[in-house]
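Blackboard transcription, Thursday session:
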Amino acid sequence: MTHPSDTGPAPVLALKGISKSFGAVRALRDVSLELFPGEVHALAGENGAGKSTLIKTLAGVHRPDAGQVLLDGAPVVFHGPGDARDAGIAVIYQEPTLFPDLSMAENIFMGRQPRRALRRIDHRATRDATTALMKRLGVELDPDRPARGLSIADQQIVEIAKALSFDARVLIMDEPTAALTNSEVARLFGVVRALRDQGAVVLFVSHRLEEIFEICRRVTTLRDGAWIASEPLDGMTEDDLVRRMVGRDLAELYPKQDVTPGETALSVRRLSREGVFTDVSFEVRRGEIVGLAGLVGAGRTEVARAVFGIDRRDAGEVEVDGRRLTNGSPSTAMAAGLALVPEDRRAQGLVMDMSIERNIGLTGLGVTVRAGLMDRGAERRRSLDWAVKLRVKYARIADTVNTLSGGNQQKVVLAKWLATRPKVLIVDEPTRGIDVGTKAEVHRLLSQLAADGVAVLMISSDLPEVLGMADRVLVMHEGRLTAEIPRSDATEETVMAAATGRAA
Amino acid sequence: MPDSLTRAVRWDTVVGALLVVVLLLSFTTVDGFGNALNLSFLIGNTLPIALIALPMTLLVVSGEIDLSVASTAGLSGAVMGALWNQGMAIETIIPVCLLIGVVCGLVNGLLVTRLGLPSLAVTIGTLAAYRGIAQIVLGSDAVTDFPSAYLDFAAGRIGDTFVPYAFLPFLVLLAIAVVALHATPFGRSLFAIGAGEEAARFAGIRVKRQKLILFTVTGLMSALTGVFWALHYASARYDNATGLELSVVAAVLLGGIDFDGGKGTLGGAIAGVFLLGALQNVMSLRDVTAQSQIVVTGVLLVLSVLGPRVARQIAAARAGRRAAAPPPPDRKTPAPTS
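(Written on the board underneath:)
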């Protein structure tokens, strides 16, 4: 059992010439990858590039059609996730799946707790083992704390601890930071560094390029299922990496056009919702993109919900184009020209089991009507029109939206709302979890809308996005608006200072 | 393919075909099935299920359910009997009964939409409550002496045909329900609510109002059914239509309306109703006891929930073999051997 050995340390895990097809779709074509001990390795690529398939192949979910997986130089075949786990490969997903009512220790040792006599669970041993794991990860978490109420970062740390308890040597992290705040990311990265220094291998997937540069040493890029490059990140720029992923120069990620703001389109005065946010006042003018920044939990999404009428406000007023909105009524908000692209695309933005046509059609139920009945022709024309305008990639307009990639789903949500021809558009995390190419498209679209006179309020946890796109940045901290920063003064430092409650 | 659509179509077709098969088999093998009189009985006896199945279909599509329908029908019948005993005119009594149905539906709807309670629990509660009120209202009396013109209309048929008089107004109501569910913005919004309530709310659909309307209409139709029942069987008793909710829910689910909401067609539901009605008719002709018929209905209910689900899993397994993106691995269970 020999393999062509490289100079230097041998890779712990290697893929050689892996191919995998699903029907006519070639998800992976001749992909190779080498992971060395003590390295954090980035896996980069747009949505649909084959990252997920590659991860699932490593995790034993998929069996490759061709090629080899080599563990310590020896070929292995995984018949299922259990095989991969026994081989020391663990996958940490974006959304941890812990039992909320069990303690951290119980979650980690679920189903294999240390026993005492009479098969009783040895709680002390479980706890001690958990404490030891936490120490190895360099974090302090109470082993008895229930998983419910842990931040997502801490839940991921529990998942990592669980992986370590299985003696995992290769950790695959699939977009672990997508739902994390900056401070949580820092906490998670601390753990990743501790692991790396102990010689573990981490394969790291993220859409946030700055994170790749922060934590990874080398990067492997995939495009359309094919291997593009494996190289050190040292000396590369974000632009270089984007070019590898997209295969062309990205026009610009933040194509903000200069505009002269017009009259006020959205006016929020002294808006309060008890225990959630207090006394929030701001205006957005026609042509403006106003960023709303802050930490997760600062109340940004909640303000958007109350403005749109999903939640009732306890005090304050909202005016769209001079029309006062009825409290708690999204339908009147829509009629006044307000649109909200919500944070949770899958639960709030789309009916996943419905077709593209009907999802876009949902905001036009009052429009595509003739004599009280649905005018299906008009509905289809309206949906097609907007799906084409936003360049949604789909096979048929009657396909359900759950067949689309995340980026295309987001475009359907945007299409659905732009079809109402809003005067004011609120977008909540408009590019979360979508690939760089689509992200640039969304930014271009927002910029174009603003240039056409739409007032845009953009909630985003992606600071470069806020800084790159917004004319003004509003910052919330613990339910209050703490700063308003003009584009010229907005930097990561000024925004973060206001977001964390330090004096701006 | 939009697999929700093909699935619904496929299941509709299955139920429709099954109905045809059962009818053909019954015509050829069951004595006394095929004559016009028996067929008119079949339709007449199925009408109570069919009448309530109309709003029930809309309700289940929107992700809710009403189990108090039979009790509302019973209450409506009991009030009808009690008021008739007191000498009120039938022309006044019927609107009063319908109004009571509206109130029963409103109570269900308000409990579900304002307090956010699950409709399954709420309407099991009101199932007991409305039946209790019916017994208080009428006691153990049976009122039978309604005006013969009304009795004849509810029990009679057009000439020597198999068509009961009451079938004609039902067809009108069916047409209204089909249009409402499948051709209006209201119906479209019900599918959206059933398949993704939060997304529907974020699209400006007035979820609570739509549901309140549905519960109210369901109450109204249940009361109408109660009136029809008392006249059709010429007997108003507090326990009229007991257990009818089982038949209605079984028929609607049998017709391919997804219990989780968001899927199904009224055509399927009505095919399910008459399939059940035909089976019950055949069983009666074959002297199967009423108790055994309930067992059959119950088994059908379970099968009709199970059937589409199994079909879906088979479809998903097939799709999984063909296309990408199988479901994420469950890391908590041991590896499946493939």
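Lecturer's comment: DSSP finds 17 helices and 22 strands in chain A.
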